[in-house]
Structures are given as structure tokens and as C-alpha cells.
TrEMBL record:
PROSITE patterns in alphabetical order: HD (PS51831)
Swiss-Prot/TrEMBL keywords: Hydrolase
Region annotation (Disordered) ranges: 1-27
NCBIfam families recorded: antiphage_dGTPase, dGTP_triPase, PRK05318.1
Membrane spanning residue stretches: none
Name of the protein: Deoxyguanosinetriphosphate triphosphohydrolase-like protein
Family: Belongs to the dGTPase family. Type 2 subfamily.
Keyword Hydrolase: yes
BP GO terms, sorted: dGTP catabolic process
Organism: Fluviicoccus keumensis
Pfam families in the record: HD, HD_assoc
PANTHER family documented for this protein: DEOXYGUANOSINETRIPHOSPHATE TRIPHOSPHOHYDROLASE-LIKE PROTEIN 2, DEOXYNUCLEOSIDE TRIPHOSPHATE TRIPHOSPHOHYDROLASE
Keyword Hydrolase: yes
Domain spans labelled HD: 66-257
Length: 444
């Protein structure tokens, strides 16, 4: 209740881009430069260097972690904004609402800071463990970190500007509004959590933050922004996002579909034969795409024995999608930050979906990758259970203090565990459960 009142009463004078006026001068950018700096210097951001992106931490020094992925998303997001400024240089209203580089980088760098160790396996494990007390979802935890847990303000977390926070929110509805589980939690097996993937959302605990972020919008914009698609047998989904968020999501999709493809090719998880037989067959109908027209040239570079050639092919592919981004309008909204959306043309959008699905099926769903994700999932569940049953013995003093004062104590446990890196969670697990490992002199 105290946090709710803090956010309801919050006043800010630094929201240059929202709702007062569009970003239109270098002076306006100083607040977003500060936002970006606070994200970069935060503990949550640093921990991304030791959290799994797709392939497990420690398997190789070559492929991506959550940190390198976030840096690449920021670079792509900046490139998209530069491309849009050039493409819409004669349209004053659109040009003035395109985010500055500092703003889009702050948003892109933040987009994964709420994700726990061990990829989506860790996310599902925490959701299953807290399902009766608000659940867990990585994007929801991101908002919680920037608004309440970050180091820069006792009451407001990282204390970011309103527009930056709006851009970070991918799904503007809370957990209880979109959850729709098909299974029976009471009789489910803890050894198979496939039915317990979380909905895409923010937490009910942060509805006060969301209300503050969207408070300057008109009532009609608020209602439309928070509409959802009703699904049968699966979670409901939000329908809309802000302009800045749409740029960040495109950058994320491009990075996921292409940079993770690079990792898979370099580690020989994907062969040239698989690529040619499965991708070309699906994309050949998109005859207007430059990627399809020059598919063989891309293929030769991607699967070249030369690292430089492969990198050149990846860079060309990233650039192909970046320079196809355009802006659509939804006239149902009044505010420009909701009216405008960054989109890919249909052909490129479909091709990128095919690439993402290919990476998912050939890399993420590989048994070797799933074994590591599943192992991490079981460790997270067991850590949660033992910490919940022994908080006063096992929680650090600062965490225990928050735990004792909290109404939703499981939220404090998920804050603690989701902040762990892969290595920290593994060490703590072994210190608790491996008889021959652990000493009072160990430092996790």
C-alpha cells in the first residue's frame, strides 16, 4: 500500500518527450542520457553478462550472453531510428517523435534485465513456484527492477523518465488479467512444467507503476492501449504497444533471428544443407525480397570457412531488415506515441518469422540445449522451495529484512532468485545440496 501511494503521488518535471512535447532538441536528450547511464551502471545490467541467452554460459566464450544480446539490440535499435529519421525527414510530426539515440538505447539495453538465470527454463520455474501469489514473468520483473528495485532511488528504483518506462513495457496488462492456464496446477507434475509458461505481462504488484506511466494519456487511449485478445486454451495477449516499444521489439527480433543464427552456424549446430532445404523452400514465394533474390550469395557467406565472410553475411542480413523498417499509423489513438508504430513490410516480416522459428527449432529445441535448460529449471525450483521453508536461516540479511516486511513474501523470493546469474545459482545450489561442497569461507 505504501508503494502504491508513492507512485500515485509521484511528480516529474523531466518528461520532455511525454506527454508535454515531442523530442525535438539536443537539450531534451539530457534526461535520456541519464536514463541510459543508470541502466548501464546498474547491477541488474551487469549480471546479464553471466545469464544464458540461448546457449549455456561456460560452454564457449564465443557465443552470446544476455548482455551481448542487449548491446546488439541497442545498436540495431539506434540504426532503425537513424534510418527512420532519414526516411521521414520531411514529415515534421513523425520525425519529432522518433526517439533519440540515448532514449532508444536506454530502452533496448533494459529490455532483458528482468530475465532470470537459465533462460526461459528459469522463468517457467519461478512462475510455477509463485503461481498462487502473482506468478513470475521476465518482462514483468524488468518493470519491477526499473521502478522499485534499482539502486538509484529508495522509492522509484532506477528513477527513469516516464517515456523511457513506457518504451520498456511490452505488455501493458497485469498478470491476473491475461493468465489463462489450461492445466490443473494441483495435480501437475513438478518434473514437467510445459503447461506453466507465464503470460506476457506486468505483475499485479506494479499496477500502480503502469497507472502512473499512462496517466497523461486520454481515457480513450488508455482503454484502447490495454485491450487484449481473448484466447481459448492459452494465455490472453495484449494488442498494442508504444511507438518506442515497437522499435525495440523489431531490434530484438532481428537480433534473435540473425545473431543467434550466427552462433548456431559457427558452432555447427546448423548445416548448409539444412539451411538451403528448409529456409529456401519457405521463403521462395516472397519474390520481391532482396534477400530471396540474393539467397545464394547470403548462403555462401554465412557458411563460408572464413569468419570474416560469415560476419559480413550476418551484417548484410541485419542491414537488410533494418533498412526495410517503416512507420504505420493507427488513427484510433490520439497520442503520437501510440498512433505510430515501427513495422516491417509483410514479406520481410514473414521472412524474419521463418528465420526465428528455424533458430528455435534447430537450436533451442535441441535435446542438448533442453537438457541444460531443464537442469537449470530444477535447480531454481529447489532453491525456491528451500529458501521459502528456511528464510531466516538462508536469506541474506538485507533480503530477509524485505521478506519480513513484505505482504507478498514470494515476490521477494523471486526478486532474490531472479537476480542470480547462472553461476551464482549453481554455486548456491551445490553449497546447499552437495555434501562435499561448501565452506563458511566460500564467497558466492
Amino acid at each position: 500500500m505504501e508503494d502504491m501511494q508513492v507512485w500515485q503521488n509521484r511528480k516529474r518535471n523531466d518528461d520532455e518527450g511525454y506527454p508535454i512535447k515531442p523530442f525535438n532538441s539536443m537539450n531534451d536528450d539530457s534526461q535520456y542520457q541519464r536514463d541510459r547511464a543508470r541502466v548501464i551502471h546498474s547491477a541488474a545490467f551487469r549480471r546479464l553478462q553471466a545469464k544464458t541467452q540461448v546457449l549455456g554460459i561456460g560452454e564457449s566464450d564465443f557465443y552470446r550472453t544476455r548482455l551481448t544480446h542487449s548491446l546488439e539490440v541497442a545498436q540495431i535499435g539506434s540504426g532503425i531510428c537513424e534510418r527512420l529519421k532519414e526516411a521521414y525527414r520531411t514529415d515534421e510530426e513523425i520525425k519529432n517523435w522518433i526517439p533519440s539515440l540515448s532514449l532508444i538505447e536506454a530502452i533496448c539495453l533494459s529490455h532483458d534485465i528482468g530475465h532470470p538465470a537459465f533462460g526461459h527454463g528459469g522463468e517457467v520455474a519461478l512462475n510455477y513456484s509463485t503461481i498462487n501469489n502473482g506468478g513470475f514473468e521476465g518482462n514483468g520483473q524488468t518493470l519491477r527492477i526499473i521502478s522499485k528495485l534499482g539502486e538509484y532511488s529508495p522509492a522509484h528504483g532506477m528513477d527513469l523518465t516516464r517515456r523511457t518506462m513506457l518504451g520498456i513495457i511490452k505488455y501493458p496488462l497485469n498478470y491476473s488479467q491475461v493468465k489463462n492456464y489450461a492445466g490443473d496446477y494441483a495435480s501437475s507434475s513438478k518434473l514437467n512444467l510445459d503447461a506453466w509458461h507465464p503470460p506476457k505481462c506486468i505483475f499485479d504488484d506494479e499496477i500502480d507503476v503502469l497507472n502512473w506511466i499512462i496517466s497523461p494519456l486520454s481515457d480513450s487511449d488508455k482503454q484502447l492501449f490495454q485491450l487484449k485478445d481473448i484466447k481459448v486454451g492459452e494465455h490472453h495477449k495484449t494488442k498494442f504497444k508504444s511507438f518506442d516499444t515497437s522499435i525495440m521489439e523489431l531490434a530484438d527480433d532481428i537480433s534473435y533471428g540473425i545473431h543467434d543464427l550466427e552462433d548456431a552456424i559457427a558452432l555447427k549446430l546448423i548445416t548448409k544443407t539444412q539451411w538451403e532445404s528448409e529456409i529456401l523452400d519457405q521463403i521462395s514465394k516472397f519474390t520481391g525480397s532482396e534477400f530471396v533474390q540474393n539467397f545464394q550469395q547470403y548462403t555462401d557467406r554465412l557458411f563460408s570457412d572464413s569468419n570474416k565472410e560469415r560476419k559480413h553475411g550476418i551484417s548484410k542480413l541485419v542491414g537488410h531488415f533494418m533498412y526495410k523498417v517503416e512507420i504505420s499509423r493507427n488513427e484510433s489513438f490520439q497520442h503520437p506515441l501510440l498512433k505510430y508504430q515501427a513495422v516491417l513490410p509483410n514479406q520481410e516480416q514473414n521472412i524474419l518469422k521463418i528465420l526465428k522459428k528455424f533458430v528455435y527449432n534447430k537450436v533451442i529445441k535441441r535435446p542438448e540445449v533442453q537438457v541444460l535448460e531443464y537442469k537449470g529449471q530444477l535447480m531454481i525450483m529447489k532453491l525456491f522451495k528451500v529458501l521459502k521453508e528456511n528464510p531466516s536461516r538462508l536469506l541474506p540479511a538485507s533480503t530477509l529484512n524485505h521478506y519480513d516486511q513484505a505482504q507478498n513474501k514470494e515476490r521477494i523470493l523471486s526478486d532474490y532468485i531472479s537476480g542470480m546469474t547462472d553461476g551464482y545459482a549453481t554455486k548456491l545450489y551445490h553449497k546447499l545440496f552437495s555434501p562435499s561442497i561448501g565452506s563458511i569461507f566460500d564467497r558466492l
